[in-house]
Amino acid sequence: MNARLPVSEGIRVAAVDDIPEGEGIVIVRSITGTDDDVALLRDDDGSVWALDNTCTHAEASLAEGWVEGGQVECPLHSSKFCLKTGAVDGLPATKDARPHRVEVRDGQVFLYPGERP
Amino acid sequence: MTDRIAVVGGGVGGVSVVAALRAGGFVGDVILIDEGEFPYDRPPLSKAYLAGDVDLKSIALQPPEWFDDHRVQLMAHSSVGALRPGLGVVELADGRSVRADKVVLATGGHALRPPIRGSARAGVHALRRAHDADRLRTALVPGSRLLIVGAGLVGAEVASTALYLGCQVTIVDPVVAPLAAVVGDEIASWLHGMHTAHGATVLRGVVESFQDSPDGITAVLSGAEPRVFDAVVLAVGMAPATALARDAGLTVDGGIVVDPMQVTSNPAVLAVGDVARPCAGGVLLHRSEHWEAAQHDAQRAAATILGVAPPAAGASWFWTDRYGTHVEVAGNLAGADEFASRGHRGEQPYACFGLRGGRVVGAVAVNDSASVRAARRMIDRGITVSAAELGDPSVDLRRLIKR
Predict the structure, then answer these.
(1) Nearest CA to A46 among A81, A85, A17?
(2) Who's near A62: CB < 8 A, 6+ residues apart?
(3) How much is the pTM?
């Protein structure tokens, strides 16, 4: 699971079933090679998305946020971020979160760090 | 036709008005008049900003370029002297005037100064704006003796920050368990007890007077020996800044009275946030003094100006931080006739839900983000649940909402 594949292939980071709908899990930066850890977030329609894990406002893990209707709500001060684009919707955060592309193949989640969804 | 809006006050309410106007497609001129250098967020003033862990720029409500990007004319370092709604003009204190078809007042309030003899002296602080926090911070040196008058949200957060900075902290409040009306007696007692557990001295009583003494300020307290402090913080609440409204002839009654659309007694003037006192069906309601409520007011005010339906009202929510603990409250526990605890008080995460007639009406959560977010959705969507389900940690709250 930790094996680093060439980036074009994506990195297999989790099974879809590892992420309950409406929740998220953290993929640490040592696996993703990104500056921040990555939050894998599963929307309530079952789709999987990835954003930088640290809220752009304060030290909070978006993977612990509430995921619903295409957005993740920060667990600390409730700023909301678009799962697809990372666009912030609502104070106190003012900066967008960085999105990463994911693909689901055969029930496995592949992350493409730094690629836009 | 409304093509020019002036918003007075650059707190979260005022900034949210201009943001909501632009988000809603308003194409006219938007002017934001603020006394400070730039609009900043106030919750950190008793926490990380007071501690000196973050600077003013890092608590800006919007980055500097945001105002230009959204064609908002920010008039910083400016205060309003008078409203002339009949003339469509806002007069600034320095003599300039700003033309506006509609004005939104987001003037917030002032820290309340209780009528305690001697409280005008230099070492007696209050906390409302960044420069108040800057001034207070210079007094919070390790070992300094600090008295905090009032153990509500601001007093409790200042106590936590001052202990973090190494001060000797004493808190005095006449109430056994502040916040009991909001979170119930038991949780309020536990929260209040955190002060003692973290090394503060908690006194029950009131301050009768402050007097100069050779080594500081002597506080004469009811039912206790006088004590000497290096500094004092008055944290006994706020008074809404209604002077402009009153001078302009608007209806003011413990706040600027607004209808459910945020419109004051003058149809050209709206008010939002701490300063606004809602009135619905002829009944005056309490002002909200919370951060998110100010944003909701702002969104309603913008909808009124734009002539569109206001966003749906939801359960209220606020947070407070003390001693590394994040406390959140949603809805209103006071109306509950049944309670359900999730986890054990004193351990974390912990949440307490209040129900009425099989529906959640409020919740308080301690380091339990998911429970309070679930509670808000249960309240807003009128979900029927049982106390047994809520109190069972093996039950997934998300599933209760979806079933």
Answers:
(1) A17
(2) A24, A39, A41, A51, A52, A53, A54, A55, A72, A74, A75, A81, A97
(3) 0.94
Contact criterion met (CB below 8 Å) for A55 and A71: no
- ipTM of the modeled complex: 0.91
β-pair type (A80-82, A88-89):
antiparallel
Residue A90 contacts B where some CB pair is shorter than 8 Å:
yes
Tell how far CA A71 is from the center of its chain: 11
Cα–Cα distance between B328 and B255 in angstroms, integer? 26
What CATH number does the domain located at B124-234 have?
3.50.50.60
A-chain CB neighbours of B16 within 8 Å are 91
Mean pLDDT, chain B, whole residue set:
96
Each domain of chain A, given as residue ranges in start order, spans 7-111
User: Pick from B43, B62, B295: which is nearest to A94 by CB?
Assistant: B62
**Nearest Cβ partner for A91 among B12, B370, B396:** B12
CA distances from B193 to B173, B188, B201 (A): 13, 8, 10
Do the Cβ atoms of B316 and B324 come closer than 8 Å? no
Same topology between domain B124-234 and domain B324-402: no
Alpha carbon distance A48, B256 (integer Å): 47
Chain A residues within an 8 Å CB radius of B15:
91
CB of A22 within 8 Å of a chain B CB? The answer is yes
pLDDT (tens digit per residue) in A22-62 = 999 999 999 999 999 999 999 999 999 999 999 999 999 99
Q: What CA–CA distance (Å, rounded) separates B95 from B244?
A: 15
User: Per the CB < 8 Å rule, is A94 touching B61?
Assistant: yes
Using an 8 Å CB-CB cutoff, list chain A residues near B373. 66, 73, 75, 78
Fold for the domain defined by A7-111: Rieske Iron-sulfur Protein (2.102.10)
Is CATH 1.10.10.60 correct for B324-402? no
Instruction: Give the domain B4-110+238-306 fold.
Output: FAD/NAD(P)-binding domain (3.50.50)
For B350, the token pair is 């912990």
Which H or E run includes B142? none
DSSP state of B117: B
